[in-house]
Amino acid sequence: MSTDTASTGAASTKDGADPSLTVRDNRTGTEYDVPVTDGTVRASDLAKIRIDDEPGIAVYDPGFVNTASCRSAITYIDGDKGILEYRGYPIEQLAEKSNYLEVAYLLVHGELPTHQQYDTWEHQVTFHTFVHENVKSFMEGFRYDAHPMGMLLASVGALSTFYPESRNISDANIRQMQIVRLIAKMPTLGAWAFRHAQGKPYVYPDNDLGYAANFLSMLFKMSEQRFEADERLIKALEVLFILHADHEQNCSTNAVRSVGSSQVDPYSATSAGIAALFGPLHGGANEAVLKMLRRIGSLDKVPEFIDGVKNGNERLMGFGHRVYKNFDPRATIIKKACDDVFEVTGVNPLLKIAVELEKVALEDEYFVTRKLYPNVDFYSGLIYEALRFPPEMFTVLFAIPRTSGWLAQWLELTEDSEQKIARPKQIYTGKRDLDYVPFADRG
Ligand code: SDX
Questions:
Q1: In this structure, are residues 73 and 108 in contact, taking their beta carbons and an 8 Å threshold?
Q2: How confident is the model at residue 400, as a pLDDT?
Q3: Which of 45, 130, 133, 285 is most deeply packed, by most CB within 10 A?
Q4: What CATH number is associated with residue 146?
Q5: Which of 109, 282, 340, 416 is catalytic?
Q6: CA of 178 relative to ligand 1 center, distance in Å
Q7: Crossing angle of helices 329-345/231-243, nearest 10°?
Q8: Residue 78 falls within a domain, yes or no?
Q9: What is the pLDDT of residues 197-247, one digit of tens each?
Q10: Cβ-contact 35, 48 below 8 angstroms
Q11: What is the 370 CA–ligand 1 centroid distance (Å)?
């Protein structure tokens, strides 16, 4: 008689216990020993549990809530303790002491660069910021009101046609060259999508500026000789880029890995990541947060909105997370960055509503029992708006830095001998063995 510890809470490991499960198939009375490795069992071991020539046991896990798809050494998250580390370095230290390009190097190469390695990396990225003039013409073809994420998604995919050698992903040097190109060109494409929506001329990269400063220049430069951004805003953007760089197997990274598993070029795989990030449940949440705050409109409307959430008529965008069941460490850092930015731009009036929403939610049983806390998207939009970005640009500001994470994960996939083309099973629920019905006999 098995004791169901799930109903009584977690069991504890006995000293010297054999790291395996003994699974009894009550349909046949057969027992199977299933090894436990790194807290997981291999689905292929479960497939050995079968009756006659029926398919073996598979795992059904919508949304992969409890399924590991890969082994990765890039990002570590402890959702209960609010821990986030890139290649073992705590996000708090990287946000305080590093810059985005150095973090991108760390994610892709696995170690912090030496001074020489950093200088080479910075030179490579800086001198690949330009895109082919035909890409500019391609972007000019979009409607005046095209969503910048749609423009970015299409333009990055189109880049694969300008670098056909990128399809030879088995060549390590070719892989590295495309990684540099994509990290370098994302700000250019993102800025041009913004300028397109504004009906302003596209601004070319200024290779004498740093990564974030150059991005701000391509966004906001007008007739001045050189765009001079406030150092505090450059630092805030660097911090935001660092915080958004990677986040283990999130929806868009899973898309990059799944598409990349077909051995397509990295531009096409990155384009799939951009598409996934566009969704309001994922990277599109920062845009949705601002629209939500604007819709609430004033402090006295917060209780009514919270009631709407609890009745299931609303969703508190920027709250909740698949992994963080406590605070999202990035939200804590971004909330602090708000103060630095607002020192320059003036306080965003919607901040008061956001702070009140957080306060009310964190005291309300509905949110506490569901372990819903502010995530990375809850406060980031307030900063972006203070930096004069329209909400449609917020997810572009997420996609640009996440490109280094996507590519680090893609590179790890290409070098993982265990990986193969992604092709999950299904549980078939449709009809079977029907005969074709001619039009005349159809109801
Ligand atoms: C990002 O995965 C990553 O790492 C993503 C990310 C990254 O860096 O890549 O961190 C970036 O995508 C952050 C998340 C941004 N999205 C939002 O802020 C949108 C609002 N949040 C949710 O829709 C939701 O919390 C998710 C999508 C983030 C997580 O969804 P899950 O893990 O599938 O959880 P769930 O939808 O099953 O919710 C569990 C319960 C449900 O209630 P019950 O059905 O049990 O009654 O919590 C409720 C949900 O209804 N719930 C919410 C809620 N989020 C979950 N209720 C109200 N408001 C919310 N925001």
A1: no
A2: 98
A3: 285
A4: 1.10.580.10
A5: 282
A6: 33
A7: 160
A8: no
A9: 999 999 999 999 999 999 999 999 999 999 999 999 999 999 999 999 999
A10: no
A11: 10
